[in-house]
């Protein structure tokens, strides 16, 4: 049970890390946030511009990203419901801990860990399906563009622990899709780029 508690703690820390940083504000925080968004977009442009996308290629690519986002939205809605189902248990556990000094019971820890494990499994499947949704729509990319995608990241960056022979071109293209096309800022960036494409 101790391992389950440790796993739960790590999962919760990871999921709450962004919340913790969001609560810290500084006088120039809003400006810094804007610069960070621009830095992320600049980084995406380092990968997108070498593709030299033609105007006719944008529509299919954007449709693929939309399909992937739809999958992500449906998963988020499912997770919202499942987390709402946990609310009573978690609220009672926190209240008892704060007001009565009662250590979170193993039954509560296990229930939460089991639910989070199921959610994590679904997220893995969803991520693979999101990549497939985009792959189905980028068939018009030419060999040169695919070569750019394959060469965009070092093998060691794609998977530092994997045997190089396992990092195929398909693996690299999937990695590119996940980290570039499915990046939260990429869709809007592509929309803007398409207005200037020939």
Topology summary:
Blueprint: H1 2-23, H2 29-48, H3 55-100, H4 106-135, H5 143-150, H6 155-158, H7 169-181, H8 186-194
Folded structure, characterized:
With 198 residues, the protein is mainly alpha-helical. The protein starts with a helix and ends with a helix. The model has no long low-confidence stretch (mean pLDDT 88).
Features of this protein?
single chain, 198 residues, mainly alpha, 77% helix, elongated
Radius of gyration: 21 Å
Q: Return the average pLDDT rounded to an integer.
A: 88
- Beta-strand level of the residues, as a percent range? under 5%
Overall 3D geometry? elongated
Contiguous uncertain segments of 5+ residues: none
Percent in helix: over 70%
State the secondary-structure class. mainly alpha
Order of helices and strands, N to C? HHHHHHHH
Number of discrete helical segments? 8
Terminal residue distance: 60 Å
Number of strands: 0
Short description:
By secondary structure, this protein is an all-alpha fold.
């Amino acid at each position: 049970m101790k391992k389950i508690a440790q796993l739960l703690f790590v999962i919760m820390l990871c999921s709450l890390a962004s919340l913790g940083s969001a609560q810290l504000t500084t006088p120039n925080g809003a400006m810094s946030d804007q610069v960070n968004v621009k830095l992320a977009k600049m980084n995406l442009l380092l990968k997108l511009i070498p593709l030299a996308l033609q105007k006719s290629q944008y529509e299919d690519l954007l449709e693929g990203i939309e399909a992937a986002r739809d999958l992500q939205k449906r998963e988020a809605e499912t997770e919202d419901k499942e987390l709402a189902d946990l609310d009573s248990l978690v609220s009672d556990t926190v209240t008892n801990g704060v007001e009565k000094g009662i250590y979170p019971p193993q039954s509560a820890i296990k229930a939460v860990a089991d639910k989070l494990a199921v959610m994590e499994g679904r997220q893995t499947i969803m991520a693979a399906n999101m990549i497939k949704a985009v792959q189905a729509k980028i068939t018009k990319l030419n060999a040169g563009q695919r070569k750019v995608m394959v060469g965009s990241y070092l093998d060691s960056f794609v998977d530092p622990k994997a045997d190089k022979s396992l990092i195929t071109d398909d693996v690299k293209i999937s990695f590119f899709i996940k980290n570039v096309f499915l990046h939260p800022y990429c869709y809007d960036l592509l929309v803007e780029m398409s207005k200037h494409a020939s």
